[in-house]
Amino acid sequence: MAENSQLQVVWKQIRERVQNILSPAVYNTFIKPLEPVDIIGRKLVLKAHSDMGANVLVNKHGEELRDAIKKCELGVSDFRIVVDGSTTFTLDESEDALDAFLPSPINKSFTFDSFVVGPGNKFVYAAAKAVAEAPGETFNPLFIYGESGLGKTHLMHAIANEIAKNAPEKKVLYTTCENFLNEFISSITQKNGANFRMHYRNVDVLMIDDVQFLKGRMQLQEELFHTFNELSAQNKQIVLTSDRSPKEIATLEDRLRTRFEGGMIADIQPPSTETKIAILKRKALDRKCSVPDDVLEFLAQNSGHDVRTLEGRLTKVIFASKLHEEPITMTLAKLALNESVNEDQEQEDVTPDKIIAAVCSYFKQKKEDLLGKGKKADLAKARQICAYLLCEMLSLPLVSVGKLLGGRDHTTIMYARDKMEKLEKLNDHVAKEIDDIKNIVLKQ
Question: Is there a contact between 220 and 193 (Cβ–Cβ < 8 Å)?
Fold first, then answer.
């Protein structure tokens, strides 16, 4: 506990500095009544007399106060608010509770320059560019929707990267709906709801990916509704993505639906064959690989709408070229994808049952457990890899894969597929497991 005299000296200097930043009315109403009660770590603890005053201070004038604290250079760099008798604004003295809410990382390689524009996405691309150039001024909120794997997340990261480049002083927060849910639940169990709200409302740009997962979660929708209103009132930019339009999100509250529809709704259409080829050329260039035009056209054919699947086909061919130390040709590409004329029967022999059996054998799991509701870590991993392989090897629709795996929702399958796809690229151990199971399937 800091000495009272020390607190008063620190607070007096900070108060004098912030008085020069805020208007007299704001200063007298929200800053002057505050009392310094402690210094914990590098944070000054201030006591407010009402939840309302604390809420306005944190959400509307928190940055000015924080800036004044830093510029005084008194050994503290931040503040926390407590309210007598309140369960909303509290301080967890055992740890910095706010630091528990960590933003999802921004992928620096996802930029507007690396996004391939075609007829199906040029409108949403232009809308995203406009938001990045003038956040909070146009298209607010920006709601992007379309099938999985068409570039929604790429555009969100591109917006964040563009703002970071042109306006680094702006605070941008990107997260997924799943992460938003997990942190919301954590804030309830740990009784640090004020920190949760501060984390999501004290930003200039809030971006939430995959908001279709809001369906049926009424308490989470309530929290997002108030966050939405708070940010909108301050002209802060909001960007949302979904695999469907707001009207198609089941059990979404009407008041939240109307907020989503209040700005710009832009959908991404599946890429044309020409756009697919352009995407493949860009990906090959990024990997410093020379791929003949006929191979690019071959890869673009029968690849479905998912850009991730398209990139996966290219990855297989590049890997085969390096493995066999041969240049990329049509023959090599067909062999790599098991799609040569002489191997059609082998491809047809790959069935869902064989993939499920191979996964069960590899991870030593019973089929009924894999298709059941067990949630142990090793079982969940095997199930997610199985979902990924059913999508990747057979190009089955998400709904069909869900039915094969015990009647699971297509959004659960999409999450498993995307997760394993990322891990295959980043984790050598997972990549080997997936490759080993593929070999088992093909040898059956």
Answer: no
